[in-house]
What we know:
The chain is α/β, with parallel strands linked by helices. The protein has one domain. The chain contains five helices and five strands; from the N terminus they run αααβββαβαβ. Strands 1-2-3-4-5 form a five-stranded mixed β-sheet, with helices on both faces. Strand 4, helix 5 and strand 5 form a beta-alpha-beta unit. The radius of gyration is 16 Å and the shape is globular.
Amino acid sequence: xxxxxxxxxxxxxxxxxxxxxxxxxxxxxxxxxxxxxxxxxxxxxxxxxxxxxxxxxxxxxxxxxxxxxxxxxxxxxxxxxxxxxxxxxxxxxxxxxxxxxxxxxxxxxxxxxxxxxxxxxxxxxxxxxxxxxxxxxxxxxxxxxxxxxxxxxxxxxxxxxxxxxxxxxxxx
Length: 172
């Protein structure tokens, strides 16, 4: 994606900064759960060129997608691939969970078209708005209804990194 076509300077900065593998690696190590990070071979982190944003949404959203191999305690690493989907938001958006689910389905569809198997995709929303993030963080919250209704349905949730509320001492 051409950075000059992104809608705001914040999107431009997000896209530029996290398109560098070391910056993405640092973000992953400091802000994803340690039990997830230990599963990843961060030396294999590779930015994917494809964006999964609809053309009509391209002026409103930016995403970055990295692939990474699964790591293991054994050498060589476990075979497998994981995608890390970074989505930047400057406002809390009610439909973020649905938007991320659509991205993930598109990633899987492309893999299947290319003769590849499905793989895990972990989204992370990087948010810098003035207000606290208030949008639902799971499909269950977004759709509503009794929890039992989701026992056999599609489940999805995502973490939000609210960079406006990260204490300075946690910066590297």
